[in-house]
Amino acid sequence: MTTPAVGAALPGFLNENLVSILNGLAVGMLLFTMAVGLSLIFGLMDVLNLAHGAIFLLGGYVAYQVIVKEGQSWLVGVAVAVAFGAVAGLALGGILRPIRHRGHLDQALLTFGLAFVLADLATIFWGSDFQSIPSPVFLQRSVEVLGQFYPAYRLAVMGVGFALAVVVYLVVERTQVGAVLRAAVEDRAMVSALGINVGRVMLAVLALGTALAAFGGVIGAPILSLSPGVDAEVLILALIVIVIGGLGSIPGAFVGAIVIGQVQSLGIALVPQAAPFALFGAMVIVLAVRPEGLFGSR
Amino acid sequence: MRALAPGPARPLVQLAVVFLLVVAPLLLGDFRLFLLTEILIFGLFAASLDLLVGYTGLLSLGHAAYLGVGSYATALIAIHLTDNVFAGLAAGVASSCIVAAATGWLAVRTRGVYFLMLTLAFAQLLFTLAITWDSLTHGANGLPTPKPTLGPGDSGGALDGGTAFYYYALVAFLFGLGLLRAVVASPFGRALVGIRENESRMRSLGYATSRYKLAAFCLAGAVAGFAGSLTVQQSSFMSPSGVSFEVSALALIAVIIGGRATLVGAVLGSAFVFVIRDELSSAFNEHWRLVLGLVFIGVVYLLPRGISGLSARVGGLLTRRTERAAGEPA
Amino acid sequence: MTAGTEREDPPALELRDVTKLYGELLVLDAVSLSVDVGARHALIGPNGAGKSTLFHVITGTQRVTRGRIVFAGKEITRVQEHVRTQLGLGRTFQQTSLFDGLSVLANVELAVQQQAGVARRLFPSARRRTRVSERGRELLSLVGLGSREAIPAGALSHGQRRQLDVAVSLATEPSLVLMDEPTAGMSRDEAMAFLAMIVTLPDSLTILMVEHDMDVVFELATWISVLDAGKLIADGTPEAIRGSRAVQDAYLGEGEHLAKLFESD
Lengths: 298, 330, 265
Description:
B: about 325 residues; mainly alpha; ABC transporter involved in vitamin B12 uptake, BtuC; two-stranded antiparallel ribbon; 2 strands; C: four-stranded antiparallel sheet; about 40% helix
C-alpha cells in the first residue's frame, strides 16, 4: 500500500507545484544574471558593487523607454540597455579608480552612495508607479509543459539564462581570456608581472558584469515589473546567492541562484509564512557551516 | 591623531555646545525643537554605529535591527506593563543587547563582505518578523504607544510636551555619548582601533579579537536599543519602517558624512541628514535622497574624514601655523 | 623522547617529527629540532625548503599535519595563535605588520596593555594608564626609536619599521621571539644597526630567526639548523655548519641543486 502511495505522491507534488517550480527557475535565472557579475567583480577587484541592483533596474527602465515609449523592437531595446549597462560599468571603473588605494570599505561605500543616487534618478525619470514591458509578440503564448500550460516567455528566460551560464562558464574556464581572468583573481601581482594590463581586465569584467545586470533588468521587466525598491530587492537576493554559492565562483552563483529562486517561488507557494526566514536562514546556515560558500575556495 | 589631541579650545567649544543645547527650547519653535530632539536621538544611534564602522572597521548594513528591537521592546512594555520611562529604557537596552549578542556571535566570525551580508540579513529578517508577527507588532499598521511617564506606574508626571521630553532626551543623549566616548578612549577602545588597523597583528599580540568584536557589537547594539527606546518614546508609535533598510542606510550615511571614528561626527552627520530630509524636501521636490546621495559620494571622495575631519584639518592648519610662528624666534 | 619533557630545564622550543602536507605535497618531512634557552638560533635553507611553513606552524598560523611542538616544556601543537602569544611565544613579521595609522607609541602600547591585562578594561585607573605608556617608551628606547614615538607608524623607514616590530613583539614579554627574515630589504647600514640592537637584547630571551643573509647568520647565530626540501639536513654550531658537506651541496650550490630538481621531474 505504502509504496504506490509514495510513488504517486511525487507526480502529484510535481503536478500541483509545477508552475511554482518553473517560476522559481525563471527567477533563479534572472538572479544569475545579477549574481554572476557581482561575483566576478568581487573576485577580481575586491569591490562589492552595491550599485549592481540599481543598474539592473535602470537597464529595465532604459529598455522600457526604448520599447514601450519609443515603440522600437525588443532587439533594439535589449541592445540599448546592454550598451547602457556596459557604459555604466566603464563609468563605475572610472569613478572607483581614484580611491582604489583606499581599500574596499571606501569602495563599497562609494557604490552604496551611487546606488542611492541612481535609484532616485530612476524615480525622477520614470516615476514610482509600476512599469512593465510586454513580452515579445512571438512569445506571448503558452506552451504545454508536462501537461500544463506555461507562458512561453518565462521558458525563454530560463533558456537564455541557462545559455548565458554555459557561455560565461566556458569563457572563464576554457578560453585564454578566462585563464587570464582566473589568474588575476588568484594573484593580481603575478598577472601584471606577466605584462598583462590588469586594469584593463578589471574594466572589461566590470563592463561585462554590469551589462549582464542591465540585461537581467530587461528580461526581468515583463515578469517582475519595474518600480523603486526592486533594485534593493534584487541586490539583496543576488548577494545572498553569491554568499551561498561562494564569492567568485560561477558554478556557485548558478547553483545559488537556482536554490534562492526555488525558495522565493516554491517556498512561498508551500509555506508562505516561513519563506523569508528560509531565505536568510539558508544563508546564515551556510555561513555558519561553510563560511566560504558552497563552491568557494579558501 | 592631531584631531584627537585636546587643544585648549576644545573644552570651551564643548561647553558652548552644551549650553546652546540647554537653552535651545528658548530659541526654537515647537517644530524645530521636535526636529532637534529627533536629531539627538538619531545622532546617538549613528554614534553607536560609528563604534562598529569607524572604530572597529566593521561595516554593518543592518544596524537598524537593534534600534528596532529597542523600540519594539519599549513600545510593548509601555502598552502591556507600564509607561514608566525607565522601565521602557531598561527593556529597550536589555532586549537589543541580547539580540545583538545572539546575532553578533555569528557575525563577528565573518569579515568584510560576509559581515556586511550577515548584518543586512539579520536586519531584513527582523523587518520581516515585524511585518508578519501580527499578534505582537500589529504588522504594517504599527503600534500606537502611550506617552512615557517619569513617576512609578501610571501615576507619575507625564513626559508630555516638547520641552520636557527634549530635556529628558538631552540628558539621555549626553549620557549615551559620554559612555561611548569613555569607551573609545579606554584600552578596550584602543584595542578596537587596533583590530580595524590590523586584525591579524592583534591576534598575534595575544588579543582574542573575536571577543573584542563581539563586545563592541553588543555595546553598539545596546546603545542603539537605548536610542530605539527614546525614538518610540518621542513618536509614540512604532511600525516596521523603523527597522527598515533605509534607517540603517541613513545612519551609515550620517556616520560617513560626519566623519568616521569621531562619534561627534555621527551626530553632526545625523543633523545634516535630517535637515536635508525635513527642510529641503519641499525645495528639492521630494528628491532629498538624490541630494543626500550626491553629498555622500562627494564626502567619500573628497573628505574621507567627513565634516569633522574638515574642521580638524582647518584647525590643524591653524595650530600648525601658530606653532610655526611661535617656533620661529627660538 | 619522553625524557625531554621530564628534564628539569626544558629547551625553549622543541619540534618532534613535525610534518606538513599541502594536499599531496610534502612541505615538512618529520623535522625534529630543539632550541636552547637564550640561544640565537638561525634557521636557514634554500628557497622552498619549508622555512616559512615551519615558521608558521610554530607561531600557530598553520597547523601541523603530524608531529608535536613543545614550547618551554608545554605541548602547544593544537594551541591557538593568540594563546601561544600569551604563553610567551613572540614573533616579528617578514612583511612588517604594524598599525600604520597609529602613532609609534600607540603601536607598542597596544601590545603592552594586553600583556599588562589592562586591555579589556573600560575604565582603568590613571596609574595603570601611565604605567602602560612608560613601559611603551622604555621598549621604544630599547630598540632605538625613543625619539619617534609621536609619528604614525606608516611614516617610518623600512629599517625603523623592523625596529618597531621588534619593540611590539617584545612588549608581549616573550621568552622566545621568532623573527622572519628580520634584515630582508634593509640597506647594509640599516642591517648593521639592527644587528647591534639585537645584540643588546637580554640573554634570557631566546631568538629563533629565519634568515637569508649569511653574513647576518654567522654574525649573530649561536646555533644553526639547515632545512632542505622539507628535511632537516644539518643542525649545529656555526663552525660545524660551515664545514658541513651536505649544507654546501644543498645551499651553497643552490643553482646546481635546482637544476637537479628539474631533471628529476
